[in-house]
Amino acid sequence: MPIAFKEWAVTVRALAEGEQLVTLRKGLSQQPDKPLRLAHERFFLYPTFDHQPGDL
What is the pTM assigned to this prediction? Predict the structure, then answer.
């Protein structure tokens, strides 16, 4: 099954066009003594307009 990262459409466009290189999320780990490990090496970007300000 494909894995997707849901993000604002404007952010997905900026990543695709090379205007933005990274995107950050808060609340990644509740266990600071454990290293961050990615669950998936590859994923799709799923553009969404939910919660995106209308002027973007």
Answer: 0.66
4 neighbors 43 (Cβ within 8 angstroms): yes
Q: Which residues contact 50 (CB under 8 A, 6 or more apart)?
A: none
Query: pLDDT tens-digit profile of 12-28?
Result: 999 999 999 988 777 66
pLDDT at position 24 is 78
Contact by Cβ (8 Å): 7, 45: yes
Q: What is the DSSP string of 8-42?
A: EHHHHHHHHTTS------S---S-TTSPP--S-S-
